[in-house]
Amino acid sequence: MSDTVVRPVDDAVWGDLETVFSTPGDPSGCWCQWFKVPRAQNDRISVDERRELLHEQVRSGSPGVIAWIDGQPVGWAAVEPYSAYPTLARSPITRRRDDDPADPWAVTCFVVRSEFRRQGIARALLDGAVAHARTQGAEVVEGYPVDPEVRPSLSTAERYHGTVALFRDGGFEVVRRPSATRAIMRRTV
Predict the structure, then answer these.
(1) What are the helix (H) ranges across 22-178?
(2) CA quadruple 42, 133, 145, 18: dihedral positive or negative?
(3) pTM of the complete model beyond 0.85
(4) Domains and CATH numbers, the chain
(5) Helix ranges, 90-170 (H)
(6) What are the protein's UniProt keywords (predicted)?
(7) Could you say which of 46, 84, 116, 119 would form a disulfide bridge with 80 (CB–CB 3.0 to 4.6 Å)?
């Protein structure tokens, strides 16, 4: 496999990001708005509106990182401060506790084009997300992965949060288990 190049997204690579999100399945409908838009609003807006929301977010900053292999866009990981994801605070899985860092950077989503899966792209994206967060001043990065070791039947669609093994290999530690199949994992950067 060729080297994977990962860098923060900006408007110059919007077309490549559209290619990544055109992958069959949930990404082509979500456009990484699940944690950004309140559920009632998310249920009402169209796919085109979700795509435009992500495009606006890209124009306003860098809400994630994109990966290429041999110049071909292959994946995306969303990473921003926790406060940029309003629905995280309402979820029983990701709601803050008194002893949690106030506003860590959160890796919430991975998209890897189906023909490039099982090639280490998610690992490269996680490394890139951590590096991006660090350059933006993050002190702590966290993720909310699923654990296929507990439930091997997790579908590809259910793994968009990443897996516990992926985050563990990336230097993250489990800080709590809000459910049997989900973990909150953190890394100081």
Answers:
(1) 27-30, 39-44, 47-60, 121-135, 164-169
(2) positive
(3) yes
(4) 4-188 (3.40.630.30)
(5) 121-135, 164-169
(6) Transferase
(7) 84
